[in-house]
Description:
There is one protein chain. The protein is α/β, with parallel strands linked by helices. The protein has helices at 4-10, 30-38, 41-46, 48-62, 75-82, 101-106, 112-115, 117-130, 143-152, 160-168, 170-194, 211-217, 219-235, 254-258, 273-280, 299-312, 333-346; strands at residues 67-68, 84-87, 91-94, 136-141, 198-203, 243-247, 264-266, 285-290, 319-323. It has a seven-stranded parallel sheet, with helices on both faces. A two-stranded antiparallel sheet has the order 2-3. The protein binds coproporphyrinogen I.
Amino acid sequence: MNDIFLKACRGERVPHTPVWIMRQAGRYLKQYQQVRKTVDFLTLCKTPELAAKVTIQPIDALGVDAAILFSDILIPVEAMGLGLKFSEKIGPQFSNPVRDSAGLKKLRIPDPENDLGFVMETIRILRRELAGRVPLIGFAGAPFTTSTYMIEGGTSKNFLNTKRMMFQNPKLYAAIMDKITQALTEYLKGQIAAGAQALQLFDSWGGALSPADFKIYALPYVKEIIKNLRKWQIQEKKQPVPIIYFVGECAGVLEDIKDSGADVAGIDWRISIDAAIKRLGSKISVQGNLDPCALFLPKEKIQERVKDVLTKAKGARGHIFNLGHGILPETPVESAVAVVEAVHKYSGGK
Length: 350
Ligand code: 1CP
């Protein structure tokens, strides 16, 4: 069993730095495109055998140290009753964005097995098929990032509808966030029960909030999820699974990430990892943080940048190598392979 990733999450000694890549299953892989030719994105997410297949593709192609469940942060939102569509050009769109108390009342708390059974089944298939080769990461969007899609109705640049609601109707925003927090807690419990061995909360748009607003509108809900998951795991006598909290543009809120209760802070590339580690302290591991565009450099330069991140991360309690955000669809696959090889080679491993 390759449990190097789990050990690094917990801050234990490892023979080499583990590496995985955010969005490692996706369009930059020919094998993924082949599957996507036959089914649309949502059908792929909802067909456990296919979702499991594309989850394993990057393990074979890149040799990464962890698998991440193939799904999307918007899948549980659809199950809350929002009517999701994906289009190639516009991206995700919800037909029923939540803008008022009537919208709030209609929100459902999905039952993981009854409403999102296809995700749970994908996890069960993956644990069988991976058979200990690498650990499986489950995930969800963090409540703030999830709320932006629910309130905007899709992708957004400045999150005006979300922030307007926060500032003009804070009670409504808090009530929506409570519902999201409850729904995501149940969803993540379901993933652990089905076999997820670690969890990542994606707060991709967290950096759009001022640090003061992050403390009010994002952090408390993340803390609540983590606290409730831990309580439940103790009650159920389950081994605690490591929790990674990734925040895009995190530099303004590192002290909050440190206080979130997460085992690992996922950081983007806009801050040097040694500066981030100083502020995060020695009670939390760190994940990151190569610029996804560095994969468009020649191989030797990629290796230099990998070495640089590894050297700067030496003072961390534990380090999991990753990009600072998702891999881009245009990325040459050889560059992703070069990153994984360089991490293994230069961190003292095989
Ligand atoms: O095949 C396709 O064309 C669909 C592209 C695609 C893929 C491959 C989308 C649409 N989602 C995914 C998979 C996905 N999404 C994973 C799979 C596991 C892996 O990492 O390999 C994960 C973890 C996500 C998470 C996700 N979805 C996030 C958080 C991570 C991040 O990159 O910030 C977000 C913000 C989404 C929303 C989303 N999904 C897809 C799109 C086009 C969008 C919108 C992005 C935006 O608003 O700009």
